Amino acid sequence: MAAVREPREEAAAAVGEGEGEGEEEGRWGGLLPELVEEVVRRVEASGGERWPARKDLVSCACVCRRWREAAAAVVRPLPESGRITFPSSLKQPGPKDFPIQCFVKRNKKKSMFYLYLGLLNGTMDKGKFLMAARRFRRGPHTEYIISLDADDLSQGSNAYVGKLRSDFWGTNFKIYDSQPPYDGAKASSTRSSQRFGSRRICPQISADNFDVGQISYKYNLLKSRGPRRMFCTMECPSTQETWENSLKTKSLRCTGTAVLRNKAPRWHEHLQCWCLNFHGRVTVASVKNFQLEATANPSRPDSVGDEETIILQFGKVDNDIFSMDYRQPLSAFQAFAICLSSFEALKPETDPEFYNEVTESLLAFATPASNVSICISSNSSLSLI
């Protein structure tokens, strides 16, 4: 028969275990700082740039505070190194000179989307998991909840990253961050958190959502089969934050707003389709394929656009598999949210502005003799009478 412990004995045993863990942590933390830094430096050098080798560096940073500080001193931030090592890198801007190559897997049955770091070279299952998102219907709106944990997509979770929210028509979107992007940022009015009674489940996690970007889609007049136009404004994350400091809400600076628009495709007469050069990263034609380039900010007369550099490109490579390449000034979180909007953007027949433009165009050509009128039926179909 198993012996039954008294509550006092259980408490003493728990204290003993805690002391043992403290002694173990103290033993590792008592090493010379120079030695710890050299160990971390060698682990990073031997790990290379690909996963799963770089997970050893993350393990070193999890030993104790001294090892974490050593890792922060050795590991360069994402804009400089071009490597995603720690979760905080997902909200840092990508490198300036080359893109970070990722891919997205879609699960239609579960309305799930998974972002991985890696190349589409036939070994996609070996990519490093970064984030997951799930589509939810919230009344007239649609939301994509983005999380570091594919099994925990609640907004009260420690893994909650942010969300994408659409309007009623599915043509305008807003990106919300779980943390303030800079000092003085004001939370949006769409507060949401999981509560138990009158207390929030995770009080240490901010229940606020901070607006960090807007996305809008427009369609060419009377060309429902033509390419759609895309326009984005994004709050740029700071390029000076290290992964250690980015976990904190202090010393965050606003570095301006980036204005992006989709690169206009060209019409290929021989293929009879709209074409963009994805340099082999996209292999399947789809309305979801796009490339974003920087344009001048209308609110800043001194801003200059860059039509030669592709900031973000997204496209289909197989059934439910898409490539995603991004660079500065976007972060992985922002790039992922923009790509999610491509799945939700509705057809031009559901866009109210599409109806207005068609109505104005047809009325301009109508004459009393032609007796042309417009009828929009209850099932949102447009016809001529």
From TrEMBL:
<feature type="domain" description="Tubby C-terminal">
    <location>
        <begin position="90"/>
        <end position="344"/>
    </location>
</feature>
<comment type="similarity">
    <text>Belongs to the TUB family.</text>
</comment>
<dbReference type="InterPro" id="IPR036047">
    <property type="entry name" value="F-box-like_dom_sf"/>
</dbReference>
<dbReference type="Pfam" id="PF01167">
    <property type="entry name" value="Tub"/>
</dbReference>
<feature type="region of interest" description="Disordered">
    <location>
        <begin position="1"/>
        <end position="27"/>
    </location>
</feature>
<feature type="compositionally biased region" description="Basic and acidic residues">
    <location>
        <begin position="1"/>
        <end position="11"/>
    </location>
</feature>
<dbReference type="InterPro" id="IPR000007">
    <property type="entry name" value="Tubby_C"/>
</dbReference>
<protein>
    <recommendedName>
        <fullName>Tubby C-terminal domain-containing protein</fullName>
    </recommendedName>
</protein>
<dbReference type="InterPro" id="IPR018066">
    <property type="entry name" value="Tubby_C_CS"/>
</dbReference>
<dbReference type="InterPro" id="IPR025659">
    <property type="entry name" value="Tubby-like_C"/>
</dbReference>
